Amino acid sequence: MAAEEGTAPTRIMVAVNESTLKGYPHASISSRGAFDWTLTKIVRTNTSDFKLLLLHVQVPDEDGFDDVDSIFASPEDFRTVQRRDKTRGLHLLEYFVNHCHEIGVACEAWIKIGDPKEVICHEVNRVQPDFLVVGSRGLGPFQKVFVGTVSEFCVKHADCPVMAIKRHASQTPQDPVDD
Amino acid sequence: MAAEEGTAPTRIMVAVNESTLKGYPHASISSRGAFDWTLTKIVRTNTSDFKLLLLHVQVPDEDGFDDVDSIFASPEDFRTVQRRDKTRGLHLLEYFVNHCHEIGVACEAWIKIGDPKEVICHEVNRVQPDFLVVGSRGLGPFQKVFVGTVSEFCVKHADCPVMAIKRHASQTPQDPVDD
């Protein structure tokens, strides 16, 4: 029943995002928690039997709020903004890829743009991981109404088993939205 | 980040139940699926790093339907029924414990009586596994109204990460309730 040596590795998709408090390139507490949990509880010492698929979904800055103090004088300025956003996402992924490399577990990391919950489920369909791990901020019912939770949506709609990892109580910031 | 050799094993609780179609001692398709999935995708060859906690919750036969043809002539007859029910549950657990033993993964198995979804969440609180794996019959929204799903309840209420494993489409009986 247990897998034989030499069989295909278990492919675990881990969705990661930036800290809402500190911004890029810092990973959110909950995505670092989900990542650490996967390594400590699942991969453990068996690094050759797993492959991590690290997905970061960037939310498009539709209202241009991040760029409110920027000056746009040429088409090149807009390309600079696009490059900067992309670079921020890459630095976020770098953190996770570096850790995988140190431990010796295979990984792939990529960025998509869109609504995180929709894009994660879409990527699950495309990539077909064995399961998905998402961090959860552990919001109460009142906060959920305003913030929504990506993890709940994925548990319902992703086409693979989903593990939602709540943060330790000790890791929860005073306002759980500041993750 | 990855666990060192010699650290405590990852404790995985797997909830198992009998087949609704074939009855005891046969395991339901979905609990065999959840068990096999755990071994193939998580434990793999790393048997010494995991311990399986196998919980079977027996539903009390409150309306005595199973015993409609039995004749009760003495207190001993009632004790016989209790023993028979217990024995049925033990034979179910034997299937899973035997498999663990063959593979060489540590396990503990036990029986509780009550409402499966409530008891599973209660046992999670008591035993504090690293995560819970439950099979899911993949019922449609219409069937759920009547049958309810243990897995959905556990995902919401169990105090640990929960992995709900749906059956393969090929394993689904014509009527998914016949699991």
UniProtKB/TrEMBL annotation, chains A, B:
<protein>
    <submittedName>
        <fullName>Universal stress protein A-like protein</fullName>
    </submittedName>
</protein>
<dbReference type="InterPro" id="IPR006015">
    <property type="entry name" value="Universal_stress_UspA"/>
</dbReference>
<feature type="domain" description="UspA">
    <location>
        <begin position="27"/>
        <end position="166"/>
    </location>
</feature>
<dbReference type="Pfam" id="PF00582">
    <property type="entry name" value="Usp"/>
</dbReference>
<dbReference type="InterPro" id="IPR006016">
    <property type="entry name" value="UspA"/>
</dbReference>
<dbReference type="InterPro" id="IPR014729">
    <property type="entry name" value="Rossmann-like_a/b/a_fold"/>
</dbReference>
<dbReference type="InterPro" id="IPR044187">
    <property type="entry name" value="At3g01520-like_plant"/>
</dbReference>
